[in-house]
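sanity check both lines:
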Amino acid sequence: MTQPLFKKVAFIGLGLIGSSLARVMIAEKLATEIVASTRSAKTLEDAKALGLIEQGYSNPVDAVQGADLVVLALPVRATEKVLATIKPYLSENCIITDVGSTKGNVVDAAKAVYGEMLPAGFVPGHPIAGAEHTGVHAGKVDLFAHHKVILTPLPSSAPWAVEKLITLWQAAKAEVICMDVEKHDEVLAHTSHLPHLMAFNLVEQLANRADNLDIFRYAAGGFRDFSRIAASDPQMWHDIFFANKKAILNAVDGFEQQLAVLRKLIENEDSPALMGLLGNAQAARQHFNHMLAKKPLMEKNKVTQQFTILPGPKTFQGKFTVPGDKSVSHRSIMFGAIAEGTTHVTGFLEGEDALATLQAFRDMGVSIEGPKNGEVTIHGVGMQGLKAPASALYMGNSGTSMRLLSGMLSAQKFDSVMTGDASLSKRPMERIAKPLREMGAQIQTTGERGTPPVSITGSQPLKGIHYDLPMASAQVKSGILLAGLWAAGETSVTEPEPTRDHTERMLRAFGYDVKTEGNRISLQGGGKLVGTDIQVPSDISSAAFFMVGAAITEGSDVTLEAVGINPTRTGVIEILKQMGADLSVENERIAGGEPIADIRIRGSRTLKGIHMPEDQVPLAIDEFPALFIAAACAEGQTVLTGAAELRVKESDRIQVMADGLKTMGIDCTPTEDGIIIEGKGQSGDWSAIFTGGEIESHHDHRIAMSFSMAGLRSSGEIKIVGTETVATSFPTFTELANQAGLVIQVTE
């Protein structure tokens, strides 16, 4: 039997928070003995009757003797008096923590008692959880589950004390965050204290009206939800408002300023600006955990999601519409933002990468409505209308956003910084920074490897250049051309191989003249874009996973509707056809300047290994992870060369795919610019190819989805870890895959 975390726990105060924590300790067997002290004899009697404590005391001195954890669960203004009372009776290794919603005053109270030499076990804390009802009976064992608990360790706090408290709160199923005391009080002033102040104020304002009865009687749900917090304990909030006075008053000042802006927009009936403000607020609410707060989607080495696919025969059938093309979605926002007039977008991909781009332009003052069901309306600000963002632009996991925006931001009058998540922060940015410097940009990358954050100095006059791309890259090409919109003279890019031409096509759709002569693309600076309607086709990169899945599964029949078949993107179709896939392109048509078609794939014949043609490599660069799965199921050897670009994507896709294939029993050899895969397929044999195993995706969405398709031909269970980034490009992936017949279990 494992030892409990604490021998004796003493609660000073036993209301909602204290009694809930006591319930957790009992349920998880975290304490040998639990006692409490409070002024209310009835509370102590009730707590004993509920089985929460073994002993109750009116004097805290009696409670804390011999305790190795003291929890101050009392009004924040009572902290100093209680600490002074119990100080002589606390053991040297006793941990002292609290549950108050302000921290600066708690530390001040402790210093008033102990001086500057605070006890090693003193670690202030704040569980951000509550309920309408208070008191010992209101406590719940799951009150803290899926809520945050903030600890504010001090320089004097011992690591062992902090660790034990983290273990305690994690046992309560809370997410524990460590934060500086001042930062805590500032954050809580805005996110908790100000909303409570506003709720009390609003209810008081309405209660003082002569028609208050009618107002309250007919109040809608929104009022009820918001004003609920005004039913909180007045004494507690009275104390909090004084205890965190400075930070709360700063928050009130900010609210008053923003309210004045809102009032003016309504008064002037400024529709685009009001829609922009409301849309920005909506987006902030929907994405504040990472996008607006500039926080990574995942912390380093933290796996937040995994896929599990069980072995056994699978079907793979149906008609599907995969999400909108990510490349086109990015550009529709970028170009709509700097166009004159309004741009209406349909089919917009509501994945994290495209949303990061959308949020960046909102941060630069562009009014954007949506997205709602794939529809976005952008009120363009013209070539000179972007404004300086308040802080760094957060690009999430999106290399496209960062590289294309590097070009656009290099031409602006303001300084800017772009950051990204843990994965993006490792990706090379010098490939775009170098040619932009030749144009006159002042742009800095980070460290020896030239990775994000990317810092750009504004007000630099740009001149057009003629640039020969050292390797085929649509992102680098596009970043240079976008800088060229503001540059003096002609800007041209010559490609070693054709790459996707979405930038050129869409600039023309916005009325900007772009010339393509062979592998040379050029434009003159100083023109303008005019708002237009953009229909985003379904993304062939996302469709590729279903194309491969159908090609390797016996009796499959999958149709993917309205897929973009831009000739610079169709490498995956050509390669699968060369491998012998039963694939047809049907109902070809044009939508929003981009060619689209329905793609039908049937599992009717075994694929053959091939030497993948190098002229198709730039046209299928994002689809190779999926094609590697197809190659493993093919008969004979498949060789890929000329694809060094794969090593600098979200992960080193050559090495990561090779590692995963080997894990699942596939003989393969990575090379500098490609891979050799020994296919295990045999003509007419549809049995399992892969052995199963645990795959590390390295938080690369395409790796995760590719190995998911391997589950269609696996003899063992496949676990894929770090799959949360699938949402960046294909938020409905698991839903559609399950509909088709590949059962993917998702665990957080």
User: Anything to note?
Assistant: The two ends are 29 Å apart (CA to CA). Residues 181-207 form the longest helix (27 residues). The chain has four domains: 6-179, 187-265, 306-321+538-747, 326-535.
